[in-house]
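Hi team, as promised in this morning's meeting, here are the two structures we talked about. I've kept the exact order from the run log so nobody has to guess. The first one is mostly here for context; it's the second one we should focus on when we meet again. Sequence first, then the predicted structure tokens.
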Amino acid sequence: MKGEEEYIAVIARDVESQFEALRVALGAVLEDHKADLYILDHEIDYDYIKNICEDCAEEYEDNLEFLTDMKGHLYSNVKENEKYNFTTLSMDEITKKIKEYSVIIPY
């Protein structure tokens, strides 16, 4: 991946992976790659994130904003995530969109 821009999809399918998936997406954009985050089949669970560390919920919100500032996109198949600035897509739309990426990182 080094030296060549990749287009990366980071996909979190469960609550336990949502925090780490965002960190991976951010790491990719900091390495000059394009990265988008997908949260599938669940609403962002801030109660879970708060149990990871004292400041993790605030960090998660900041990191979501930073990812979008860095031209990353937030996608979900759960409409409730729109309140966190995610674009809602159907699974059919997600399946088609996934084909655009050169790297897919599933969690």
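And here is the second protein, the one for discussion:
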Amino acid sequence: MQKVRVFVDSYRCKWCEACVVEMPEIFSYDEMTGKVAAIGEVVELTPALESTIVICPTKCIYVEEM
């Protein structure tokens, strides 16, 4: 599997909660910003993660290949 680091563009995030509901092991609510934050660790680019990226209504989730 491909290894990636996941990022969330906090300026585009509207806190719809879809990513947190789908993958709480990667995404969480950041009380400081009022937006979503992604864990900073390298993870596998799984079909579930790809699906979560696609369902984001503001397209603010992106990955960096490792």
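Starting points for discussion:
The beta strands are 3-8, 27-30, 35-38, 42-44, 61-65.
The chain is about 20% helix and 35% strand.
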